[in-house]
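Just wondering, does anyone understand these tokens?
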Amino acid sequence: MQSNTLDGVLIVDKAPGMTSHDVVAIVRRALDTKKVGHCGTLDPLATGLLIVVIGRGTKIQDLLMSEDKEYVGTLKLGEMTDSQDADGQITETRPVPELSRERIEQAFAKFDGDFYQMPPMVSAIKMGGVPLYKMARQGKTVEREPRFVHIFAHEIKNIALPEVEFRVVCSKGFYVRTYAFDIGNDLGCGAHLKTLRRTKSGKFTLEHAVTIEDLKNKPRAEIAAKILSLPTVSRMRGA
């Protein structure tokens, strides 16, 4: 198969500790093709579903990025960090009170449906052409525009204080670490996001995902066989 015939979507299960751009570089090497992009950035801490578009698949990048996402995660109460997740520096600690399940459920319920979310300073959003995280590294804090977001569903999976495991289905542009931070604020003890895994994006799930190990070790033809063709993607989306 010639590299210029590769067009479509590859679902990758991102490993922790790497950026979404790292995944794109690995896919380029694995498939020996240059026209590769990704849809919906995952932070280095996060694992799970990353949609990688290849060849003519890059033309539907914006379309795929606009779809709803599902995540499972763990927030840790009592500790706040400068990035709102476990990769950041702890900025404040507070005692965690004896919180009932009912009280925790009340906090989560406040963020159902439509609301405005303030993007974190440690984010890839650009202001004046400069990503906010670069300003944050210089110790700067700037005014950000709140984003209109939507939570379609949430579930509290387990409570083992100071940690709470949850699932959330949300619109594009939603920051799960800010969600954890805001819930911690509502509970009066602060929180940060300890773990995060994206399990779904639009109609795509992890069922047919390739792992980073696959990309590094399996033959090119085997990886190429996992690419979803553009007609298949269109049928999956009901387009």
Observations:
- The chain is about 25% helix and 35% strand.
